[in-house]
Amino acid sequence: MSIEQAEIEKLAELARIRIAPEELAAVTSGIASILGMVDQMQSLATSDVEPMANPLDASQRLREDVVTEVDQREAFQAQAPATQDGLYLVPKVID
Amino acid sequence: MPFHSLKDVSSGLQAGTFSSEEISADYLRQIEASNPELNAFITVTADAALIDARSADASRAAGTAGPLTGVPMAHKDIFCTSDVRTSCGSRMLDNFAPPYNATVVSKLAAAGMVSLGKTNMDEFAMGSSNETSFYGPVRNPWNTDCIPGGSSGGSAAAVAAGMIPAATGTDTGGSIRQPAALCGISGLKPTYGRVSRLGMVAFASSLDQGGPMARSAEDCALMLTAMAGFDPLDSTSTQRPDEDFTRNLEQPLQGLRVGVPGEYMNADLEPELASAMQQALTEYEKLGATLVDISLPHTELSVPAYYVIAPAEASTNLSRFDGVRYGHRCENPTDLHDLYTRSRDEGFGAEVKRRILVGTYALSAGYYDAYYRKAQQLRRLIQQDFIGAFEHVDVIIGPTTPHPAWKLGAKSDDPVAMYLEDLFTLSVNLAGLPGMSIPAGFSDGLPVGLQLIGNYFDEARLLNVAHRYQQVTDWHLRTPTSTGGEQ
């Protein structure tokens, strides 16, 4: 499977990753070689195989629906680049 | 002083030969001496360590010490440590001092271990050479022109160089076993779910597992006993009774059935490495084991399956880094989109971006069945290979890697060549099995590792099988001359 530079640019946009124009060719060829290796998978018929998401085929545990956490907003927001009045600040998104 | 085993340090503390404060100070001096060249530590917490060491000495004086009380160790910089920078080898988290401890950090501290700092690693654990770290590559103590392996390369190099008796690591596709092999130490990746993932920065959540890295199987057993256990705060932690992983160490290997996978032994192995593997198998026969040829037919397809599943999970996990709540934020963003994109561009290195892009591709509408679902089906087949093998054998033994450590930069421009070095370790994570690497000889002066793969939750047996080998061989006692030891 070959992949075009335009597709890489679209993926980068979806993933919010910026690729400098001068790096685009190298990034595209690196990903093309990985996808080429990955395409070995298609050599094997697997239509009757159940996909495996978790090595122990475990399901989510349930717990009592009670509050177990305490408020640590200040500790968490101390990590943030910009906060005000207990809120996280980002550039203006609506006028 | 250096190259004590964890067991030796524990015995010395119990006998009163030295205090925790003295031995911790010794190791801090060793770190200071070796780190400028090896770059194994990102952060050294000397002051906090000496306070913890004095408190360990106080609890020993009060008669409340356990076997690990006062023993120095280090954490891979992927484990959250309260108020101590946890960078994960990334510029993205260069300014991140978590508000809490990982469960593993809390458990080892509760056992009395004294953390001296945080070890270097590939960025977000993505790499097999430690060259993707934002803090620069780690060098292999056996030959400083060579890589130490990755992603837990800092932990492996630190133990190999005698900078610390033991360290934590994490293993998503071989990141404990491969650097352990390349640096000549012992390392264990437990069964998925055995060790809590809470506070371990997530890379690929269905594969990630923390474990011990140390000088011997016995040291790994002591440390795993304190690290493992059910954690209600980790949704994939397994609910099982706690175990003493040292309990079977001395058991004789008479009658042990050792599976030898043709796909591993007949791969393109470095010749000296291949003969070291044969010698190790002969050693196991002398210990009373029976060798059984087995086949793990989907081994080769573990590489493509892994390089779909791991990047897919990584692209999802790493979407949390948005420059808003914690981590790196770009200067003067013009709008929200610019804030996200530029913060991530500046915060992530090339390999992390590459994997995010591959993962985003594999999860895209229209490609999901061909990539992600297909890889999950292969994952099932890989697991079935192992389940079939364990009907006939007790443990599987082969090489950890096809080659010893390579020169820095040798594979940096070819991601696929780098990925293929993980051929023997990836399938163990895909299946969720426990795996171990122990030193088994040298190839061109560089250590090579023997990989032991066990059945689910059979760590005590793996450690037993490794320990008995270390009773009749001395590969694990060899030390690199470059840091004052003797090969």
Task: Pick out its properties.
heterodimer, A: 95 residues, mainly alpha, Histone, subunit A, two-stranded antiparallel ribbon, 2 strands, flat, B: 487 residues, alpha/beta, three-stranded mixed sheet, EC 6.3.5.- (chain A), Aspartyl/glutamyl-tRNA(Asn/Gln) amidotransferase subunit C (chain A)
Short description:
Chain A has about 100 residues and is mostly helical. Helices cover about 30% and strands about 5% of the residues of chain A. Chain A has a domain at about 5-40: Histone, subunit A (Orthogonal Bundle), CATH 1.10.20.
How would you portray this structure in words?
- The complex is a heterodimer of chains A (95) and B (487).
- Chain A has 95 residues and is mostly helical.
- Chain A has a domain at 5-42: Histone, subunit A (Orthogonal Bundle).
- Chain A has helices at residues 5-14, 24-38, 73-77; strands at 83-84, 87-88.
- Chain A has a two-stranded antiparallel ribbon.
- In chain A, a hairpin with a 2-residue loop joins strand 1 (83-84) and strand 2 (87-88).
- Chain B is α/β, with parallel strands linked by helices.
- In chain B, 38% of the residues lie in helices and 13% in strands.
- Encode the helix/strand succession of chain B as letters: HHEHEHEHEHEEHEHHEHHHHEHHEEH
Mean pLDDT reading of chain A? 91
Count the DSSP helices of chain A: 3
Helix and strand composition category of chain A: mainly alpha
Tally of extended strands of chain B? 11
Order the strands across the largest sheet of chain B as they lie in space: 4-6-5-10-11-9-7-8
Approximately how much beta-strand content do the residues of chain B carry?
A: 5-15%
